[in-house]
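Dear Dr. K.,

Following up on our conversation at the group meeting, I've run the structure prediction for 2-hydroxymuconate tautomerase from Pseudomonas mosselii. I'm pasting the input sequence below exactly as I used it, so you can double-check it against your construct before we proceed with anything downstream. Let me know if the numbering doesn't match what you have in your notebook.
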Amino acid sequence: MPYVHIRVTDEGVTAEHKRQLIEGTTRLLEQVLNKPPASTFVVIEEVATDNWGVGGETVTALRARERNQ
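The predicted structure tokens came back this morning:
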């Protein structure tokens, strides 16, 4: 019973993106590990950019700097 937890920042991830991630992840586990889709669980968690840090600063701060460049 595979369980896959995907974390992404909450920056415009649509329902269609999520559907594709769930479908593709399930298909990959079936193809590579022969896991049945009916027992494969995929969870997508969206994290606020204030709660995601890279290189010692939040993604919110990184995105703001990118916009100002």
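Two things stood out to me. The first strand starts at residue 3 and ends at 9. The mean pLDDT is 97.

Best regards,
J.T.
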